[in-house]
């Protein structure tokens, strides 16, 4: 977990909700569960974990839709990495569609829906990571 957090930080001091979601997807857990595991591992302070848990209560449903989706043909980690590569501009829509086993049109729709949900969120959340 510490390695995943370190990779996500990339010279930042805080993680935003999207960062937390990406890490949670790697471990196939919810964002609140990830926050408490980070607290247990000594990555974040208890008071920060409590504050964040309150901030994200109800908001994580935007990101946690996978519980209602039919089982994926590919591991969630694979999908998360493909989405991360798209977000970072490391992969084009065509290659993303190929990796995900969907059409280019479906890939564009998926990415548009993801962007819409992200921008609909009213406030951003961040959590400070303890230096280890």
The unreliable regions are none
> Could you state the order of secondary-structure elements as H and E?
HEHHHHHHE
Q: Which structural category fits the helices and strands?
A: mainly alpha
Strand content: under 5%
Topology, number of strands: 2
Strand order of the largest sheet: 1-2
What composes the largest sheet? Answer: 2 strands, antiparallel
- Please, how many helices? 7
Concise synopsis of the structure shown:
The chain is 58% helix and 5% strand. It has 132 residues and is mostly helical.
Layout of strands and helices, then pairs:
Elements: H1 2-9, E1 14-16, H2 17-27, H3 31-40, H4 46-56, H5 76-87, H6 93-100, H7 104-120, E2 126-128
Antiparallel strand pairs: 1-2
Keyphrases for this structure?
7 helices; two-stranded antiparallel sheet; 5% strand; single chain; mainly alpha; 132 residues
Notes on the structure:
- The chain has 132 residues and is mainly alpha-helical.
- The protein has one domain (2-128).
- The protein has seven helices and two strands; from the N terminus they run αβααααααβ.
- The chain has helices at residues 2-9, 17-27, 31-40, 46-56, 76-87, 93-100, 104-120; strands spanning 14-16, 126-128.
- The chain has a two-stranded antiparallel sheet with strand order 1-2.
- Helix 2 (17-27) packs across helix 3 (31-40) and helix 6 packs across helix 7.
- The longest helix is centred in the last third of the chain and has 17 residues, at 104-120.
- The chain is elongated, with a radius of gyration of 15 Å.
- The chain starts with a helix and ends with a strand.
- The model has no long low-confidence stretch (mean pLDDT 78).
């Amino acid at each position: 977990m510490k390695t995943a957090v370190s990779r996500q930080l990339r010279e930042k001091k805080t993680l935003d909700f999207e960062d937390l979601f990406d890490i949670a997807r790697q471990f196939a857990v919810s964002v609140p569960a990830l926050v408490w595991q980070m607290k247990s591992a000594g990555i974040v302070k208890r008071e920060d974990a409590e504050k964040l848990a309150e901030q994200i209560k109800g908001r994580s449903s935007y990101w946690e839709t996978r519980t209602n989706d039919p089982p994926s043909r590919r591991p969630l980690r694979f999908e998360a990495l493909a989405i991360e590569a798209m977000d970072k501009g490391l992969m084009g829509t065509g290659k993303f569609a190929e990796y995900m086993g969907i059409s280019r049109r479906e890939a564009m729709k998926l990415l548009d829906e993801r962007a819409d949900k992200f921008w609909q969120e009213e406030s951003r959340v961040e959590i400070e990571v303890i230096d280890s």
